[in-house]
């Protein structure tokens, strides 16, 4: 049956919308998820793959931890490679015992979809939201198209989890939101390859030929990225050229060998930083990529989305249980403080490791000096490690600290 009314209309069935719906459901708050794409498309979309401990904890609390605990790869560090040298960042030693888990976002999405289709709340695929109306009133509604028909979902609140290009943010009247953004003069060419990873932990490489990243999806599937110019066509890069370029960028003094294998996917990703303020307009809220984007170098996108919806679900639950809007009113400030920290970290990782096409040799030497400082000082390394494994949520300055755990 097609629902006509709900408490929270969730627009978008990516990780933010699916996790929010699951958390709301567990707290007894009624909601409906509208997703424009079909299930198969959403489940095969390739995205990032690093989960902070806080994200793993909330997925477990949402009941989506079983396969994650079985198949996720726990990592206790990353490697920085620069100037033909390797340096390991040891997370437990530098960041109070912390670690991260390698588990693809597509797998998180599959687990959440399975749960939601089995237990509710309603999740409609092929339901494209075209407008949000009445966010300034007590009775908002969401207009969408499904099965070739125009439909309306009446609700009390709307949450835009519809990604960067979504319609919810765009439905806010001119002047209602302020946006901040920066685009970068390079993109990533990402590949998936059927070959065992050549390393046990991720390698972030600064090289005179540009940035490269070695990541993984499982003990038999590698995920690798190369910095490429904006506007690059992935099809213009042959498999051999990709492996040769990766080899050149990961070159290091000492033993190392990059294993090659069949490339099963190639795509180009733009790099952008973007923040919307505030994350609310009347009864409309924004979460995840709809609210903010980070370049992927710090692996923060999915984790920020998970943190947003954890805070938002707790706020709706408090409203449901007590009638108080205190947490809902604090949502934007609570999340934005951590969002801006992650924006800074992602910007730092990106600009320290990539080569800007206009970069001077002087600026390259500064990048190497910065990386050398991280390699030589536990204080500098701890700053990177703490940000990488994920900072706790804290209330805006001057208010009570509030942790997610
Ligand atoms: N109506 C309904 N659904 C929509 C609409 C619309 N008008 N527009 C977009 N969507 C859907 C998209 O099809 C997509 O499934 O919203 C979803 C948004 O999902 P994501 O882009 O994955 O964003 P989010 O859930 O915020 O996830 C956070 O973490 O790793 C990062 O950027 C990466 O996707 C990632 C993000
Ligand atoms: C990935 O595995 O896709 C990945 C890992 C780390 C990043 C970005 C992407 O910083």
Strand coverage percent:
25-35%
What's the total count of β strands? 20
Mean pLDDT: 95
Largest sheet: 8 strands, mixed
Low-confidence stretches: 400-405
| Number of helices in the DSSP assignment | 12
Structure at a glance:
The protein has 405 residues and is α+β, with helices and mostly antiparallel strands. The protein contains twelve helices and 20 strands. 36% of the residues lie in helices and 27% in strands.
Notes on the structure:
By secondary structure, the chain is an alpha+beta fold. The protein contains 12 helices and 20 strands. Helix 1 packs parallel to helix 9 and helix 9 (301-322) runs antiparallel to helix 10. It is globular and about 65 Å long. 43% of the residues are buried.
Which SSEs are present, and which pair or pack?
Elements: E1 8-11, H1 15-26, E2 31-34, H2 39-44, E3 50-51, H3 53-61, H4 66-71, E4 73-75, E5 77-82, E6 85-90, H5 91-94, E7 100-102, H6 105-119, E8 123-124, E9 128-133, E10 141-146, E11 149-154, E12 157-160, H7 167-170, E13 178-193, E14 203-205, E15 212-218, E16 221-228, H8 239-249, E17 263-277, E18 280-281, E19 284-286, E20 292-293, H9 301-322, H10 326-353, H11 361-376, H12 378-389
Parallel strand pairs: 1-2, 1-12, 2-8, 5-14, 12-19
Antiparallel strand pairs: 3-7, 4-7, 5-6, 9-10, 10-11, 13-16, 13-17, 14-15, 15-16, 17-20, 18-19
Helix pairs in contact: 1-6, 1-9, 9-10, 11-12
Bound molecules: adenosine-5-diphosphoribose and P-hydroxybenzoic acid.
